[in-house]
Amino acid sequence: MGELCVRSVLVTGANRGLGLGLVQHLLGLPKPPQWLFATCRDPKGQRAQELQNLASKHHNLVILPLEVANPTSIKAAAAKVGEHLGGSGLNLLINNAGIVKITLLENETLEDMTEIYTTNTVGPLLMGQAFLPLLKKAAQGSPGSGLSCSKAAIVNISSIGGSIASFSAWEMIQASSYRCSKAALNMLTKCQSLAYKEHGILCLALHPGWVQTDLGSSGGHTPPLTVDASVQGMLKVLSSLSEKETGTFLDWEGKILPW
Ligand code: NDP
After folding, report:
1. Of 19, 41, 151, 230, which cross-links 13 as Cys (Cβ 3.0–4.6 Å)?
2. Predicted TM-score of the model (pTM)
């Protein structure tokens, strides 16, 4: 299995946690992307300090504002990415931004269900729509008929928590709004894979493992995986994907997960 080699990548929620880890590891690849778009809600703010430090050292890193629950913000980011790329397309879109609220089923509310669904499910839908022209352009510009992340791909960072068949860790954390949003994200991934296959775009739902981030630790337990281990695993998986895997649900080790 070779290293991931991809010309242009966009990561949402890139200022901390897994998003930041993905950016760090992509920059450290033997052949880093020529264009790496790290997007976050407040690129100039304190929460994006680490990204700003990285951008001062890596000229291929472009930080852009992007709020995934806001269609206007998404369209503006797509236009900016298009300007940077000139005539070429975007190869890899990683929909990573996500939120959780740790709540018992009886305490879920309309507001929480809506906010979490909007961020975790509608966000990736709108991202896929807005970036479709750039993804199509990337696919058209890549030789060969197969699918791959080097050519054109949408990777939705999902969660085993959204798996209906495994209902993982229910006794520890209920978070039904989060589980529903990720189950719906899995279905969205399948729909995207069916709709976008003819355009040469691979679509994958990817579970990063249970990882030591703010989100991963929010239930009050310490997750077993470091960001580095999860991201290394995920990038290895991405490097190996082909047509066979489009529309599937994999984890950071490349194992197929039950929907
Ligand atoms: P973190 O809480 O560490 O980071 C979440 C990121 O998402 C932050 O950059 C945050 O930005 C961003 N974000 C949240 N809402 C929005 C929004 N509306 N628009 C733009 N950005 C937003 O979480 P993780 O890194 O752990 O999670 C990354 C992904 O991995 C998520 O999709 C999560 O569901 C998934 N995942 C994580 C697991 C884990 O154990 N950590 C397990 C399974 C899945 P800001 O700083 O502005 O809030």
Report:
1. 19
2. 0.98
